[in-house]
Structure formats: structure tokens, C-alpha cells
Amino acid sequence: MTAQQPTLALDVADLTVAYDEKPVLWDIDVQIPSGLLVAVVGPNGAGKSTLLKTILGLMKPAAGRVHIFGKPYAAQRHLVGYVPQRTSVDWDFPTTVLDVVMMGLYGKLGWIKRPGKKEKELATQSLQKVGMEQFAHRQISQLSGGQQQRVFLARALVQDAALYFMDEPFAGVDATTEKAIITLLQELRKQGKTVIVVHHDIQTLKEYFDWVLLLNVRKIALGPVHESVTPQNLHKTYGGRAAFLGTMGG
After folding, report:
1. pTM of the predicted protein model
2. Angle at 191 between CA 96 and CA 185, to 5 degrees
3. Which residues contact 233 (CB under 8 A, 6 or more apart)?
4. Strand blocks (E) in 61-181
5. Do residues 218 and 201 make contact, with C-beta atoms less than 8 angstroms apart?
6. How far is CA 237 from CA 24, 52, 56, 219, in A?
7. Distance between CA atoms of residues 79 and 87, nearest Å
8. Can you give the C-alpha Rg of the chain in angstroms?
9. Could you read off the pLDDT of 126-172 as tens digits, one per residue?
10. Cα–Cα distance between 141 and 145 in angstroms, integer?
């Protein structure tokens, strides 16, 4: 890569992941420039969450490599924010909203140093951005699904990352929360951040995202939404179900 070319936010090469020798992701190549809002879409079992977890070092690939801004993830962890699926979290854990958000700062603080006044201020500011500051001292178990999702977003925001991965942030939230989340993601993009989102609603791709990765164990397509979402690519991604999806209503 020459000095004139900007470093890719995400560069995945020849990535293969298998469970019990059955490939879940096969020979995936993904190059995503900085400053884009990118959807990852595909049917259940396509490997979308597995892709995120492997990029983040939470799963070990059978082959391939991942670079974040030109270096391995381990060297760039401080530049990355992650919002996992809400269903993967124990919401009965006895902790407050503010404490959950401050957990996003542990990467910078280390686990030994206790968060202080500055960290509480940063966490409160992040809660304000997602409209949850009045819930700061509430137990997370007392929140609705949409409120929990906003808290997760605040925890990612407080990291002030350059690259965000979000696994189904719109799942199970109401229309108001969905609108608030996408507005926030678009604001992050305006700030030059890169946001990669596992998404399930084909109908909102054009409205919400710049690029899309169509995935079904293999990469089907990657690029601008208006170029990548074709009837042929949808059929390759979803099989016979693509007929029901149409072409996103124009």
C-alpha cells in the first residue's frame, strides 16, 4: 500500500472459520475504507456474528488474517468499540447504568485503576447522547430492551473509538429507539468514524447505510448499497427467500 492511499479501517484476507470442521465462514476477503457506515446482512447461520467475533479476537480462525488500520487487532484494540447482541448479556447482573457505561473505559484505565470524576463525567456525557442520563443510577435489570440497547451504545461511545462493530443494534427495539440509534451512527460517520453493523432489515439499507456486505458463509458482495443490492446478489445470499425481499422498494 502506497503512502498516498489511506489505510483501510478493516482489511480481512482469506478468513475461514469452522465449528467442528464445518466451515461457518469460507475464504472471506473484506476491505472497508474509513468513514463509512456499513451493514452486514445475510440469513440466519450466514456467519455474521462469527465474522465480528473473529475480527475482535473472540474466536480463532482456521485460516486468514485481520488488520485494523493496517495492524493486527491486538495492536489496535484501543481504536475499536464493540456492541454485542443484547441477548448475549446477563441483564440480571446487579449493576447500574452508569457502571455499565464506565466499563467502556477499562481498556484505557486498566482493570486496577478505579474510575474517578473524569470517567464519571465522560460516562454521563455518553448517556446524554443516547437520552439515558436520567437512568444513570438505575439497575440495568429494570430497563426495557430499547433502553438497554441505548446503554450499550453509550458504553461504546465513551471509548471514543475510530472503528465500531455493532451486532444487531436494532433488534427488538421500538421505532423511536431505532431512529435515535441510526441518527447517532450517522453522527459518528460525520466525525470520520467507521461503523460496521450486523443488520437484518433489507428494506432500510438504502436509507441507513453507505456500503453493504452480503454474506452467506462466503462473501456474496461488498460495496455501495445501490451497486451491491441487486436481485441476483439477494438471490445468492438468501436463496428462494429473495423473491419475498424484492429490491427494497426502489
Report:
1. 0.88
2. 50
3. 214, 220, 221
4. 63-68, 71-72, 80-83, 163-167
5. no
6. 14, 18, 24, 9
7. 25
8. 18
9. 999 999 999 999 998 899 888 888 898 999 899 889 999 999 999 88
10. 10
Identify the residue whose cell numbers are 457506515: 37
User: What is the crossing angle of helices 145-157 and 117-129, to 10°?
Assistant: 130
180 grid coordinates = 435515535
Grid cell of 223 as nine digits:
460495496
Q: Does residue 83 surpass a pLDDT of 80?
A: yes
101 or 104, which is more confident: 101
pLDDT at 243 over 70: no
Specify whether the CB–CB gap between 27 and 20 falls below 8 A: no
Cell triple for 31: 476491505
Residue whose grid cell is 464519571: 120
15: its cell numbers = 478468513
Over residues 176-189, the pLDDT tens digits come to 889 989 999 999 99
**Residue 223 parent element (H or E):** strand 218-224
Contact criterion met (CB below 8 Å) for 100 and 153: no
Find cell 485503576 and name the residue: 113
Task: With beta carbons less than 8 A apart as the criterion, state whether 85 and 249 touch.
Answer: no
Residue 221 CA, distance from chain mean position: 18
Phi, psi of 90, deg, nearest 5: -85, 95
